[in-house]
Amino acid sequence: MVPQKRVDALLRTCARLGNGCQLLIVGDGPDRSHLEALAAQIYPAARFTGDLRGEALGKCFLAGDFFVMPGTGGLALQEAMMYGKPVAAAEADGSQRDLIREGENGWLLPSDDEEALLRVMREAIGNIPRLKKMGAASRKIVRETATMEKMVNGFLAAMRYVMVNREWKP
Prior knowledge:
170 residues; mainly alpha; Rossmann fold; 3-stranded parallel sheet; 8 helices; globular
């Protein structure tokens, strides 16, 4: 957990939602103790699991109705989609635009906009049957777009770019 992940924004948003939201935060890192202290003050219902992998992580994905990533991420977005979860994610590195189809499988959040996060979370928890349909769309999208072949081609293109230009500018 680091500030760029924006878990603090997620905690503040859940606090504003009240009891209609159950929050499970998976991961570890230098910001964890700060975030746990913040949660104790503003949203004590939040549960922190620490670093999980394999089956334990899978159980967390299966337990949730949807996945929220208000800051930078990594492969967690694709993993949530493979578990059939609708997703809400900030425009961090741009890859989210290839995976999130607004209203079909999730929401693309403007960076650093807690009001947008609140609006999306209200919409999501207010319509659980819609979330089920969006989750099915997530699984289909990630299976079509995040193939091993596409990932390898992306890495090769990046390596070619660096070799030709001697620098990397994403």
